[in-house]
Every structure is written in C-alpha cells, then in structure tokens.
Amino acid sequence: MHNQTIDTGPAGEGALNVAEFYRGATVLITGGTGFIGKVLVEKLLRCFEVKKIFLLIRRKENTSAANRLQRMLEGPIFDTIRSTAPDAKERFAKVVAMDASFEREDIVDDIDKTKLCNEVQIVFHVMASIRFNEMLDDAIATNVTSAQRLYALASSMAELRSIVHVSTFYANCDRTYIEERIYDDVPYGGLEHIQLFFKSLSPVEKERMTRLVLGEMPNSYVFSKKCAEAMIGRQFDRLPIGIFRPPIVISSYREPEPGWVDCFHGATGLCVPVVLGKTMWYYGKPEVKPFMSPVDHTVSGMLAAACDIYRRQHTILPVVKPIPVYNFTFEKNRFAYGDMVKLVGSGLPNPLDRWLSRIKCRISPWKIFPQMLLWLMTLQARIADVILAWFGKRGSNLKAVSAITALSNAVEYFRCHMWTMDNGNVKHMLSLLSRDDAQRLDFDGEQIDWRDYHKSFAKGIAMELMRKNHRRQQLKKSSIATRD
C-alpha cells in the first residue's frame, strides 16, 4: 500500500484540510445511484476538484451501468451544476460507470479491476439493501458479503488513503446507549455460523429462523448492518477504514436545493399523506425524539470522515490503530414525533391545509385508533377501486394505503424507542475543520433550525410526487406506442 503522506492541514494543530485531500483524487463509490449516493456525487463534482469518480453500478432491467449513469446525471439534482458551472460538461465527464456484480467473488472484470487498483485513493461504500422485511440470508448477502468483496478488492489498491463504510446508527439498536465502537456480539456463534446454517433451510424455515435469530433487533436490515461492522473489525482492521453511522436520513436542508428528495423511505414516506391532505394516524410515542439528519449534512459528514480517517492513519500512534466509528447524531436540537406533523404542515402553502394537517395526521400512543382508521381507509379504498373498475379504469387507492401501512409497520419500532449515544469523534472532526471547509461542509446538527428546514420539506415531497407521476405517464405513453 502506498503510504505517501499528503498535506491535510497544519501538523501542530492536527487540522483537517478537506479541500486539499480531495484535490486531484480518484474516488470510488458504490450505491452512487441511490438517494445518498446521488448527493455525494453532486457534492464532489460541485465543491471539490476531484480527478475522477468511479461508480460501481449493477445492470438493472437490461439497462447497462453507463445508461443508468447517464439517466442519473440528467436528473434535477445536477441542475445547479448545469446552471452555475461553465465547465459542467467536463465535470460530468469525470464520472465513470463500471458494470459490477456483487454476487461474484470478483465484482468487476479484470480490466476494470486493474484500473481501480492503480487509480483509486478514496472509497465510499454506500450501497445497501434497505428492505426491512428481507430474509436474513438475503440481507446479509447484500449488506455484508458485498462489503466483504469490495474491501478484499480495496486491499489491492496501491494508493488507497481512506475507506468510508456507511452503516447506520441503528445497527446496535438493541442497546439504549450506543458508543462509537464496533460491537462484536453477533449471536449464534457469529456471522459465519448463521450463513452456514441458513444454506440448508427451506424458504419457510428461513422465515421462522430469521425471527428467532433477530431476537430483540427489529428487522434484518439493522441486524445485517451490525454483522457488517463486526466483519470489518475482524477482517479488515489493517485497512484505512472507518465506519460512518448516519441516523434517519431525510430530505436536504440547503444543498443542492432545499427540500430535495427522490425516495419515500422511512420518515419521509410517512409524511406523504400530510402533503397530499390525506388522513393517517400512526402508532407511536409522541414524546420520542428521533435522530434525524438531512441528506446534505450526512454527505458532508461522510466527506469529512474520509479525510479524518486518513489523518488518523498518519498522525496517531500506535501503528495498529482501532477502526474509527462516527455516530453521526446530535443530542441537542431534536424534535419529538408529536411535533413532526405540525412542522411538516407548516410548509404547506394553504393556511387551511396547515390547520387540517394537525387533525388528519397524528402519532397516537394508543394502537386501537390507528387500527380502526386503517380499517375504514382500507374499506374506502376498496370501494373506490371497484367504482373505478366499473368505468374501465384501474384504481390504485388500495395499493397506496397498503404501501403506507407497510412502511408504517416497518418503522414502528423506531417511533416507540429512544436512544442516547456518544458522538465524540464527530464533534472532534467538526472542531478540526478549517474555516473554509466548515463553510463548504455544513454538518453541525446542533445548528439546524428545524422550523426553517420544514419550510421546504413539504414542497420537496410535492415536487418528487410530480416527477414520479410524470415518469409514470411517460412510461404509459411509451408502452401504448410500443403496442401500436
């Protein structure tokens, strides 16, 4: 491994010089076409003078990696670069797509492997399966085995400086207090034993065993992320690697534009009924204060963490160093779930809608009321779809109610529990930023004005709903044209 030291700031102060760290660097990203990945690519292109960005992209529905990249770069998230950077075309040319298959031991072909091993200095592993109800072995294959294969490849990178493994703060949510360290307490003899055991099971047996193995963990996603952290601690502790744990990631605060979002997972998805003026009550504890982070804050923290990992490798004794863990959570300045509907509703343009949203959408500490409302809504949706069918139209009311219900049930655990944590590494990293980098990388969660943030939250959701509806109409038109 190449150990040439680069200037990351004044040695006496141990400060980070993030802009210099990325200048002329080649970056490898997995999950670059996802929600966090897109913001990461956009931020690197807009704010840093990187040499090249390799994206490992899987072929999807007969669409090649190059085509998926082209479609991504045409998206609205990159409009700021297109409208403000005279050299926008040259910046976009820095992004190179590589066909990848994480189902194989060698995730890329030999030619691409040689390129990566010779050129890459910084790695961000963002790719993950966030389906909460997956079978445990499938979740482990995506969230653990893929990381294992990527870091085996990274071990051969001649100029490797830093790897950021993006985990989740909730990887150890069976604990009430979460420290910035790896918890290597995977049950049932550890990861290898669980994988070996699941190989011989039928689908029905896998479902039963998944519930048993998870124990107090709420779903296979957080359990598999815990397994990935333990795997890194055991197998790749000699790499310049760090574990970055974001909490619930929500739409952007300021960059690339306020309120930007392109998916409706987790907390953002549950706010869709508020924006649409629908009635929806969720079971949970209104007093619970969740950890949330805007996606642009999360990405800025990841970019600083990569530089901090490098700094630790070259300035901290002893030679064998512990893997740094970053709990990207801030204790102060949190709001309760009970206040969330009011905050989201404050961004609705119509005063009547703002007032009605507080009645229509609520967090209820009693399960019976959300269940009764759900029963009525399901019945209403069925009747509406039947009426539409009489007129030869395809209704989607029941599908929408089912989707919101499934999402609500999946994240119910997080509306009923609260955690405390240590975030010393994140705070120390913040203190090491130069003045310029602190302006470039705004990620201090304690400085977020949540009232100001939510002025754009509802608008961002409404914009994405419009984009999704437009894409559906375009798809419908193209399918009709194909049939004709």
From TrEMBL:
Family: Belongs to the fatty acyl-CoA reductase family.
Keyword Oxidoreductase (UniProt): yes
EC number: 1.2.1.84
Cited Pfam families: NAD_binding_4 (PF07993), Sterile (PF03015)
Domain Thioester reductase (TE): 29-300
Keywords: Lipid biosynthesis, Lipid metabolism, NADP, Oxidoreductase
Protein known as: Fatty acyl-CoA reductase
Catalytic activity from the UniProt record: a long-chain fatty acyl-CoA + 2 NADPH + 2 H(+) = a long-chain primary fatty alcohol + 2 NADP(+) + CoA
GO cellular component labels: peroxisome
